[in-house]
Amino acid sequence: MGFQIFQVDAFTGEAFGGNPAAVCYLTESRDTEWMQRVGSEMDLSETAFLEKRDDGWGLRWFTPAIEVDLCGHATLASAHVLWETGALDPVTEARFWTRSGLLTCTRQGSWIEMDFPATPPVEAAAPAGTLEALGANAIYVGRSRFDYLIEVASEAEVRALRPDHAALRKLDTRGVIVTSRSDSPSFDFVSRFFAPAAGIDEDPATGSAHCALAPYWQQKLGKSEMTGYQASPRGGTVKVSMRGDRVGLGGQAVTVLKGELLA
Predict the structure, then answer these.
(1) What is the helix (H) or strand (E) element at residue 164, kind and residue range?
(2) Burial label, 103 (beta-carbon count in 10 A; 0-12, 13-18, 19+)
(3) How many domains does the chain have?
(4) How far apart are CA 78 and CA 103, in angstroms?
(5) CB of 23 within 8 A of CB of 77?
(6) Is residue 153 domain-shared with residue 195, that is, in the same domain?
(7) Do residues 67 and 46 both lie within one domain?
(8) What are 208-233's pLDDT values in tens digits?
(9) Any idea which residues carry the catalytic annotation?
(10) Residue 77: which of 7, 137, 30 has the closest Cα?
């Protein structure tokens, strides 16, 4: 017998959009090396591993290259799978024990809301060569717990970026978030996220990046509830709400594949 595995598109209401994540149920423990090899085999920005506990689920996240401390879209995908398969009652809160502490998810109609730690950026100088590698003209540079955050003047600049991923791979950081105000009345801000050092040149829709984007744009826009659009080729929509040192992250999810992991 193998393990059940699912592929879920997160932060989208339609298949083949948002950010795909693999979610694997572990019915018995596996070591870190095995999980990393599965993450490499799946070759998605994240593969999540769920292991049942008395008080919820243990949850770990792996890119094709490394284990990460916080991941939004694979947490969203994991909660979606638990409810969709009946492993968890739809009205029951999903509780995940992770390297970033306890994370919870609740269903709000067709949306899922996650409770995550805020990671506000602090103004900092960009490492040498960063702006050149991005091809960006920054009006703000900051660093959060995980990433650099760079604001540029317009949505057009965000969308036009064609970074030098080999150069960004040398940075001592998980990734780089580039953001601006949105031109659309449907969204408050837009962003893109580049993480070559973590094995992901561009992540399609990044929940954990919004843990930095939410407090940043709250200060700039004076709003506690906002909607962000991640302007990657696949695109992704993330609703954010600030709650002190926590961030509510809202998104939708669609299962596109179910299978059995045999190895």
Answers:
(1) none
(2) buried
(3) 2
(4) 12
(5) yes
(6) yes
(7) yes
(8) 999 999 999 999 999 999 999 999 99
(9) 46
(10) 7
